[in-house]
Design a protein that fits this description.
The complex is a heteropentamer of chains A (401), B (231), C (261), D (384) and E (546).
Chain A lengths: L2 E7 L7 H20 L7 E7 L5 H14 L4 E4 L3 H14 L3 E3 L12 E3 L8 H12 L3 E7 L2 H16 L7 E6 L7 H10 L6 E6 L5 H10 L9 E3 L4 H4 L11 E4 L8 H14 L8 H20 L4 H8 L3 E3 L5 E3 L7 E2 L2 E5 L5 E6 L4 E2 L8 H4 L2 E3 L6 E4 L10
Helix pairs in contact in A: 1-10, 2-3, 10-11
Chain C lengths: L9 H7 L4 E10 L2 E11 L4 E5 L6 H8 L7 E6 L3 E2 L5 H7 L1 E4 L11 H8 L6 H6 L4 H13 L15 H15 L3 E5 L7 H14 L4 E5 L3 H7 L2 E6 L2 E6 L1 H6 L1 H8 L2
Parallel strand pairs in C: 3-8, 3-9, 6-7, 7-8
Antiparallel strand pairs in C: 1-2, 1-4, 4-5, 9-10
Chain E lengths: L6 H22 L7 H9 L6 H14 L4 H9 L3 E4 L5 E5 L2 E4 L5 E4 L5 E3 L4 H15 L5 H13 L6 H10 L3 H19 L2 H11 L5 H13 L3 H50 L7 H22 L8 H23 L8 H23 L15 E4 L2 E4 H23 L1 H11 L1 H6 L4 H23 L11 H14 L4 H41 L15
Classes of the chains: A alpha/beta (401), B alpha/beta (231), C alpha/beta (261), D mainly alpha (384), E mainly alpha (546).
The complex binds adenosine-5'-triphosphate (2 copies) and magnesium ion (2 copies).
């Protein structure tokens, strides 16, 4: 029987396997679920799993293979920005569809990519607002792994903080290599920086593996959340599962979803996940939600278009609304980003987050940041009359050409 | 008694020993002579199990040891002084000697004084690394190391190579002494005719992987032997 | 190639003039142990010299010093009366025309016997020259002749690693000859050779020594006698005696420390 | 015939030349023909993406060949060859980046996007000239070559050998990786250089361009093979082999060890640079992870799998391992590492001379070799 | 400007008022029993949706000054306070059982009961700490009084002064006295005292190295109305800075030693398999990983089967367990594969790389791709202050452990006959067998030993880093670097190499940043090897040629 093929492009080995494997499982679950409900357009959806092995050129190669050989209708995948950058020219050349589920630095809007994770204005900026307004933080440590996402986010935040009247002296920026494991010096520097008489917080864009030793060091050097809270953008339930969280209670994270969210859809999702993965200790996290939203939007769009054909589906995507897992309805915007609530959570002793603050409504994702001069001018809008990912005025082209 | 009968040995495709046989008895010195590259060392390697034989048998003290691994042969009292010394370069002289303990029961693990009488230089160099010694000193160390194991079969491959004349005389005396003690068989490879002639109770001459001449000291004809030693 | 450094000291320079090899007051110590102790030695051009001495007397160390493998703690080492060898590296010294055979035979085990000789063959040594070099007919003949001399013609295409101990000795002698050095040093060339081979080697060396300088280290007195040249006895890093073989063999000290009774 | 021509002609024996020419022609002409003319649904048709994939593998093969020149023949195990590859790649990437012009995201024709984003106002000096292809092409060989020359000169002069050398080459590539990660370096940080539009005026997405790049790779590989062959069959090649056994003995013969190694190392780095330059337009991205030590180690693995010390072996190895990797990551994404790992173990255990050794054992040996020690490993060999 | 600039102020005011009230009340009657109904109402009031309301409820509860208050507040702070969804009762869920928060009555097991957690956030936790601090100032236990004084020191408010004075009057314990004096000084400095008192307070506080107090003094130096106080505080801050600068050298040294000890542990096993045996062991990192996973398994077994009181001992069990597990894997590797490769060193690179891929994937398939949690036992958590240096417990333990492992191993190799055999075999395998040494067994055991030690190192690494299938990859390059930098084959070289790299790195890092620091260290290694082509502890002489 004919099937609709969906590519799953997540690293199952190498450094990124830690994060991405779960997403592959989540996708398999979603597809299973859809098939159990009768599939799509009367056909089964067939997942095509490949392993790009945390190797960026291999991401491009595998994308090509998925599109040219497997002829998949859409690809769900990537985690790191560089993997997305590597895939981007390929999906554009071959007119594929990529659903990218991870919070990222923005500054991009490709015709062929849908960004279901948070843009900086859906995570970083609200988090900093929270620190300033609710906790009275006046001094900021912007600590990150040295790559583009932290660099961009910190650049945006720095500008934002300065606009808010924070002095340059009160901002400390620190970058570390990937997989940095010895945090003694930096944590002790943070401690020192925090002793200047003003409430201090750390905004962490530290990536992946490096978080565990970072938090362990924080705990051991006795930095408590009440003294110097750390708000992280890359630490979710999955990462916490690898850490003893008792000494970390009260540190923060900003996401668009927490497993602890009290919503019926979420409970159902978690239950399904536990049944699928056959382990009810497993957690859910924000990028999983992003795939959940992205996949459902795609399914709706396919149904609406009546075909899995890329151009038709893309047109149908705009304005597509599906429930997210926090009880709201997320919408696909013409700039290929979606609307999401922003939540701030505190780490609990059981490894979960407790939401301590949330935005009033949903926040629309911005492809181009208002806090970067060159970027502020640009607009992404793939509907008529703009039809572009980065332009300053409408182009009046026919969408999809 | 060591009996080597009709052994063949190959290095890859080259057939190096072709049916060699000999018998070395306790209380006697067996001397093996032959030009370069005729297979003397190869024969000793076969006796020690350092290279497998493709045919033939080696018996020692009534047991067939043809397929026994090297270290077990050593533990049956076969000691080896190889050509090219083969000392352990980064072990001290003392440690080099102590490697011989592997063959000895726990109670007997000590360095006999006679060794230092024979090779006084070793005594003063116990803490120097074996690899730092001069060529001749290393050769002395190699002989001493073999003696520490209290062997019943002592296999020596050109033991006098690089050793100063006065010590060669000492070695000659010791070999004769050991041979006469009666509890040890000695298998000696030597190029130096006079040294061999003075020591040998039995002898064999090899050429191209075969024994071409053999006998006891009394039957040893210098001219015959020399003929096989010249090119 | 670095400029050969001139010995500045006037005294030795004068003495050194006219010698092919000149050692003066050379000392080498390892962790406090003096392997060479103010050793002085002069070899004249065209001379053949034998060095004997107890194990550990410092003979090999002396060769190491001359060939640049070991740097002396003090003392002068001059080649050709003027070139300071202590300032040069091994390759530069070899290119001056000093060749050496090692005590423990060292050949290139993964090259064939033929290739071993080819590499040793006298010729340009600059990297690009070596890259573009090809074997001339004359050179091929020379190698064939050498193979015959060292009796390895049959095994020319065998890997050197597969030679027996004695064959490697011969190959190394062959490589030394192929280099056509002005000054040859041989560390125990006849160890492991039969008596007949020993004699042949002595003949060979005597012939070579006609137009070159040769320095031989040996423990085989028959061989030393056959060479029939001046003998220097080394002991504890310095010269104990010097003279004809008969003289040194009669020397009490030499008998005591070396020859034995 | 002059001596050089004679040398060239004698690089391969008669049959060798035939095989060489047939292989080169099959890859350089046959594959493109099948791509262009075989009907799309026939078994013979080679789709463009497969051609491109082959191009990528051949770049790896070129890199493995380069490594083999120093490792297989001079015994210098460089665990930093990925650095030369990446430098060549960056040089090409910079040219391609300049070629984007105002089609960039921020539409700035003078500066690449990441510089605009970093608020840089003008092009840093080390980007000058990269809008010219000839300049970039020159840099593709000169930059890796110069680095190799300086690094090699320091290392070989100080007589750093064996693992010590391997590890400092690794330190070199590791340091470069960290440096290129830094955004301040002006090479695009972690995201590297990507989203290229055209090369020499040809559209990068056009099939013809892809096939053209592939053919160029085949030709460069063939030429490099001949160059390496020329080197290893020369007397210098013998010096390199001799070095591997007994470096100090080579010195006592008056040969310049430093010179020989430096020559091989530099040539090898240049070939690696070319491999990188061909690689980047075919995969569409260059990022600092190309410098990662693991990548360089992998190159050594390909070489060993194919057969070190033969020139054809590393090429075969690179193709096999990468082909296997592509295949297994597709068909067995969850457990492909088991297959790959097992492949390495099996090759070492049963094919001590690599895949090519297998062929050689079947055909009888080209070069005599020492018999492999069977029951008792022989001799005192320091493993390092 | 922040949109709600007054928030901090509000918080401060609320805290002030509350502490003041509590202090006054508690000073009068340390533990007064409130009206039971009022207390219960106050407890119930804690269940609020908004954190602002919750904060008010905490205030109110604290103001009651009931003896049961601390228990309830502590439960709230620790996330143990819950509401029964059906009965609406506020309960404390601790140790698997439920007790009524207001009455203390036992309600039953927590399992399966429909409970809704009453969540505290950081602000509320801070508020609770302050409130508890006030309660504890008059506690029976001097240690608790010290904690309370520290609490006040952390949040000094002028209202706390009278209580502190009174507490100080009654104080008999020297330690508590000192803590109270400091707390009082802090309170006075913050505006609660006269100019003279503030000046004296600066004096009292000036010998501190505590960043929080330095912050206080900095504030005083900038904002105090009195010029003399400002100057004195400024001087004190400068003095602190000078002292800190000196301490920093010491601190960096300790950081360096600690970083070095991890490097050392990671490298020691390799010093055997690679340094002694000459096997280029690319699977070394995976041995570390297996050690770490063994630790994880042992920990889980402890959690599942043994009472929490002995949980801290799991590491003691994990060490031999990891040694045995990885040692066995090592022996299997040697017997199965590596033994066929002696004399072909470079092939070992290939085979062990293959093994490393297989082991990684095996662990990934078995334990999942994600990180596993390995907890620091109690005795390895936190930090202790020594001469103004802060030493984190886990790192100190690891430094000592690294020395112990190295020392033990060195002694084993040097003095045991097995050690001698190992060295003999690796130097000349053929001759060793001719000396009667069973080379096969020795090889297997040597490789097993190296692997086992790597496993033990993995136990230590699990305490500072994440336990994931990639763990090994992060250490392999560094390990080789250390072994080679120190000098292959020399354990002391590994020691010196690891510590010098650790220390150099930690002195570079504050100056150049982590990234550049690391690059500089690598360049340093490259240049250093030029000077010493056989490593730091190169052994010289004929014995080491070729
Ligand atoms: N490992 C090896 N591989 C291949 N051939 C070998 C090997 N070892 C020795 N041979 C060959 O076997 C033959 C016998 O060698 P062997 O070492 O036994 O000679 P030998 O009689 O001891 O000579 P020598 O007096 O020179 O020591 C020689 O021709 C030698 O080239
Ligand atoms: N690196 C070293 N460390 C310590 N001692 C050394 C070192 N190198 C050489 N020696 C010592 O220096 C002395 C001289 O050695 P050398 O090899 O020159 O002696 P030789 O005269 O060649 O002896 P032989 O006749 O035995 O070859 C010996 O006692 C040796 O042990
Ligand atoms: Mg022999
Ligand atoms: Mg000597």
């Amino acid at each position: 029987a004919e099937t609709i093929k969906v590519g799953i492009l997540h690293s199952l080995s190498g450094t990124m396997a830690i994060s991405e494997t779960t997403l592959k499982d989540a996708m398999l679950m979603l597809i299973d679920d859809l098939n159990a409900q009768g599939g799509l357009l009367g056909m089964k959806v067939e997942p095509v799993v490949v392993d790009p092995a945390s190797d960026w050129p291999l991401f491009a190669e595998k994308t090509r293979e998925l599109l040219e050989k497997e002829k998949v209708a859409a690809i769900f995948g990537c985690w790191t920005s560089v993997s997305r950058k590597s895939v981007l020219p390929v999906v554009e050349e071959l007119n594929g569809l990529l659903f990218y589920p991870v919070q990222y630095e923005g500054e991009e809007s490709s015709r062929n990519i849908f960004y279901t994770g948070a843009a900086p204005n859906q995570q970083a900026i609200p988090a900093v607002d929270y620190l300033m307004n609710e906790l009275g933080v006046q001094r900021f440590v912007l600590a990150g792994t040295d790559y583009v996402y932290p660099r961009t986010t910190n650049k945006i935040l720095e500008q934002y903080l300065k606009d808010k009247g924070v002095a340059a002296d009160d901002i400390m920026i620190n970058y570390t290599p990937f997989g940095h494991s010895d945090w003694q010096t930096i944590v002790s520097d943070v401690k020192k920086f925090g002793s200047a008489g003003k409430k201090t917080a750390v905004v962490s864009t530290i990536n992946g593996d490096a978080n565990v030793p970072f938090y362990k060091e924080l705990a051991n050097q006795g930095i408590k959340a009440q003294d110097i809270p750390v708000v992280a953008f890359s630490v979710g339930e999955e990462e916490l599962a690898g850490i003893d969280t008792k000494p970390l209670v009260g540190h923060l994270a900003a996401w668009n979803y927490f497993m602890s969210e009290d919503a019926a859809v979420n409970d159902a999702f978690i239950k399904k996940w536990h049944a699928f993965i056959k382990n009810d200790k497993r957690v859910t996290n924000d990028p999983m939600e992003a795939h959940y939203i992205g996949f459902n939007m795609w399914v709706q769009a396919v149904k609406q278009a009546g075909t899995a054909d890329v151009d038709a589906v893309r047109q149908a995507m705009y304005g597509q609304k599906v429930p997210n897992l926090t009880g709201g309805i997320s919408e696909m915007l013409p700039n290929h980003h979606i609307t999401k609530p922003v939540l701030i959570g505190e780490i609990q002793p059981d490894g979960q987050f407790a939401t301590v603050w949330r935005t009033d409504g949903l926040v629309a994702g911005d492809a181009w940041s208002d806090f970067i001069p060159e970027s502020a001018k640009l607009t992404a809008d793939w509907t008529y009359p703009w039809v572009c990912g980065n332009c300053e005025k409408p182009t009046y082209a026919q969408a999809g050409m | 008694m060591l009996t080597v009968s009709d052994i063949h040995l190959h290095y890859g495709a080259s057939h190096t020993l072709r049916g060699v046989g000999l018998t070395a008895q306790k209380g006697r010195v067996f001397c093996l002579l032959g030009r370069n590259g005729v297979g003397k060392t190869s024969l000793l390697n076969a006796v020690l199990g350092l290279h497998p034989v493709s045919r033939g048998a080696i018996r020692w003290e009534d047991d067939d040891i043809t397929r026994l691994p090297t270290h077990q042969r050593a533990r049956r009292g076969i000691a080896y002084v190889p050509q090219g010394r083969e000392i352990f370069p980064r072990l001290t002289v003392r440690e080099n000697l102590e490697t011989a303990y592997a063959c000895l029961p726990r109670g007997e693990r000590r360095l006999p004084d006679e060794i230092f009488e024979l090779f006084p230089v070793l005594k003063s160099m116990l803490h120097r690394r074996g690899g730092d010694l001069s060529g001749g000193q290393q050769q002395q160390l190699a002989i001493a190391r073999a003696l520490v194991t209290k062997p019943r079969l002592l296999v020596l491959d050109e033991p006098t190579e690089g050793i100063q004349p006065s010590i060669i005389k000492d070695i000659e005396r010791v070999i004769r002494l050991l041979g006469q003690r009666g509890d040890m068989a000695i298998l000696l490879v030597e190029q130096y005719f006079e040294f061999a002639r003075d020591l040998a109770d039995d002898y064999a001459v090899m050429d191209r992987g075969e024994v071409v001449l053999a006998g006891t000291r009394d039957s040893m004809e210098e001219a015959d032997v020399r003929r096989h030693l010249t090119v | 190639m670095p400029e050969p450094a001139l010995a500045t000291n006037h005294g030795p320079a004068a003495l050194a003039a006219g010698s092919i090899l000149y050692l003066d007051g050379v000392s080498v110590s390892f962790d406090g142990f003096k392997a060479l102790n103010t050793l002085s030695l002069v070899i004249a051009p065209g001379e053949m010299r034998t060095i004997i001495g107890p194990n550990g007397a410092g003979k090999t160390t002396m060769m190491d010093v001359i060939t640049g493998k070991t740097r002396p703690d003090e003392g002068a080492v001059l080649f050709d009366g003027s070139v300071d060898l202590t300032k040069l590296d091994e390759a530069a010294i070899a290119n001056l025309g000093i060749g050496r055979k090692f005590q423990k035979p060292t050949v290139f085990e993964n090259l064939t016997v033929f290739e071993n000789l080819e590499l040793a063959l006298k010729g340009p040594r600059r990297t690009f020259a070596v890259l573009l070099a090809s074997l001339t007919g004359a050179q091929r003949d020379r190698i064939d002749a050498l193979l015959a001399t060292i009796r390895l013609t049959e095994r020319a295409q065998a890997l050197a690693g597969a030679l027996s101990h004695g064959q490697k000795q011969w190959l190394e002698i062959g490589m030394l000859l192929a280099q056509e050095p002005r000054f040859l040093m041989l560390d125990e060339p006849v160890a492991g050779m039969t008596d007949a081979e020993t004699e042949q080697t002595a003949d060979l060396l005597r012939e070579i020594a006609r137009d070159r300088s040769v320095l031989v280290v040996e423990h085989d007195m028959e061989f030393v006698r056959a060479l029939g040249c001046k003998v220097t006895v080394l002991h504890e890093g310095s010269v104990l005696a010097e003279g004809s073989l008969a003289t040194v063999q009669a020397n009490e000290r030499v008998i005591e420390v070396y020859l034995g009774r | 015939m002059g001596p050089i021509t004679r040398r060239l002609a004698s690089l391969e024996k008669g049959r060798g030349w035939t095989v060489f020419l047939i292989l080169t022609a099959a890859f350089a002409v046959g594959v493109p023909l099948l791509n262009a003319f075989a009907p799309a649904d026939s078994a013979l048709h080679v789709p463009t993406w497969v051609v491109q994939l082959m191009g990528k593998y051949l770049c790896y093969a070129l890199l493995a060949l380069a490594l083999d020149l120093v490792w297989g023949f001079a015994g210098v195990l460089s665990l930093g060859h990925g650095a030369f590859f990446a430098l060549g790649g960056y040089a090409m990437g910079m040219y391609l980046m300049r070629g984007i012009g105002d089609r960039s995201v921020y539409g700035n024709a003078d500066l690449p996007d990441f510089m605009v984003f970093l608020n840089w106002k003008e092009l840093p000096w080390y980007w000058w000239g990269f809008d010219q292809f000839w300049f970039a092409a020159l840099m593709v060989v000169l930059v890796p070559g110069a680095l190799a020359f300086v690094f090699g000169w320091l290392a070989f002069r100080s007589r750093i050998t064996g693992v010590y050398l391997s590890i400092i080459t690794q330190a070199m590539t590791y340091a470069l990786m960290l440096a290129f990660f830094r955004n301040e370096m002006g090479f695009g940080g972690n995201n590297g250089l990507t989203d290229f539009k055209e090369i020499l005026g040809f559209d990068m997405t056009a099939d013809a361009t892809k096939v053209g790049l592939y053919v160029a790779t085949v030709l460069f590989l063939a030429a490099s093979y001949l160059l390496c062959r020329f080197i290893v069959t020369s007397r210098l090649g013998r010096v390199l082999l001799a070095l591997r056994d007994a470096e100090s003995r080579v010195r006592f013969l008056g040969h310049s060890v430093t010179g020989a190694k430096l020559f091989a190392f530099t040539v090898s780095a240049m070939i690696a640079g070319i491999a990188g330059a061909l690689y980047v337009p075919q995969v569409g991205i260059i990022n600092p992870s190309e410098f990662s030590p693991a990548n360089s180690i992998e190159v050594a693995i390909w070489t060993a799998v194919g057969g070190r010390g033969t020139l054809f072996g590393p090429i075969l190895g690179a193709l096999t391992v990468n082909g296997a990797k592509s295949f297994f990551t597709g068909v067995a994404p969850e457990i492909w590492l088991f297959f790959l790992g097992a492949l390495f173990v099996v090759v070492t255990l049963f094919l001590p001379k690599g895949l090519l050794g297998l062929a050689a054992t079947v055909k009888g040996l080209r070069r005599p070799t020492l018999p492999t020690p069977d029951t008792q490993p022989s001799g005192e060999k320091t493993h390092a | 400007m922040p949109r709600r600039p007054s928030f901090k102020l509000l918080l401060a005011l609320a805290l002030t008022a509350m502490i003041g009230a509590v202090l006054l009340v508690s000073a009068a009657a340390p533990a007064r029993a409130a009206d039971a109904a009022a207390f219960e109402a106050a407890v119930t009031a804690l269940d609020q949706k908004s954190f602002g309301d919750k904060a008010k409820a905490v205030d109110a509860l604290a103001a009651l000054g009931d003896a049961r208050t601390p228990q309830v507040l502590r439960a709230l702070s620790a996330g143990q306070l819950v509401r029964h969804k059906e009965t609406g009762r506020i309960l404390i869920a601790a140790g698997g059982t439920l007790t009524d928060a207001a009455t203390g009555e036992a309600v039953g097991p927590a399992d399966g009961a429909p409970l809704a957690k009453i969540v505290a956030n950081n602000q509320i936790r801070t508020q609770i700490e302050a409130a508890l601090g006030a309660f504890l100032l008059f506690s029976e236990n001097p240690a608790e009084r010290i904690t309370a004084a520290r609490q006040v020191l952390g949040n000094p408010t002028p209202e706390a002064a009278p209580a502190l004075v009174r507490a100080l009057d009654a104080e008999t314990d020297a330690g508590a006295r000192e803590a109270l004096t400091r707390a009082l000084a802090a309170v006075q400095l913050l505006g609660g005292g006269t100019a003279a008192e503030r000046l004296a307070a600066v004096e009292t506080l000036s010998d501190t190295n505590d960043p929080a107090l330095k912050a206080l003094l900095t504030t005083a130096a900038a904002n105090d109305p009195d010029a003399a106080v400002r100057e004195a505080a400024g001087d004190a801050v400068k003095a602190i800075d000078t002292r800190m600068a000196v301490l920093e050298v010491g601190q960096n040294l300790i950081f360096g030693l600690s970083a070095g000890s991890i490097l050392l542990l990671a490298a020691i096993g390799l010093a055997i398999t690679f340094g002694v045996m000459g096997v280029i062991n690319m699977a070394h990192g995976e041995m570390l990983m297996l050690g770490a996973y063994t630790t994880f398994v042992v920990q889980e077994v402890f959690r599942a089967t043994l009472p929490p009181s002995v949980f801290g001992l799991y590491l003691v069990v994990a060490i031999p367990a990891a040694f045995v597990v990885t040692g066995a894997v090592g022996v299997a590797m040697e017997r199965g594969i590596i033994r066929f490769l002696y004399g072909r060193p470079l092939e070992t690179l290939l085979a062990t790389w293959g093994i490393s891929l297989i082991l990684q994937q095996a662990v990934r398939s078995l334990f999942g791709a994600t990180n596993r949690e390995v907890a620091n036992p109690e005795w390895m958590s936190g930090s202790l202050e020594l001469l103004g240096l802060s030493l984190t417990a886990n790192r100190i333990v690891i430094i000592l452990f690294a020395f112990a492992v190295l020392g033990g191993l060195a002694a084993f190799l040097r003095w045991s006959s097995m050690g001698l055999n190992m060295r003999a075999v690796t130097q000349n395998r053929r001759m060793a067998s001719a000396m009667g040494i069973p080379t096969g067994r020795v090889d297997a055991l040597t490789f097993g030993l190296g692997s086992g030690i790597a496993g033990v190192a993995g136990v230590a690494i699990s305490q500072v880093a994440n336990v994931s299938p990639n763990l090994g990859q992060g250490y392999i390059v560094d390990s080789f670097m250390v072994v080679v930098f120190g000098g292959v084959g020399s354990l002391w070289g590994a020691l010196a190499g690891a510590f010098s790299l650790g220390v150099v790195n930690k002195f570079l890092e504050p100056m150049a940043g982590a990234m550049l620091g690391k690059i500089l260290v690598l360049v340093f290694i490259i240049l250093f090897i030029q000077k010493r082509p056989r490593g730091l502890f190169a052994l010289r002489g004929r014995a080491f040629e070729n």
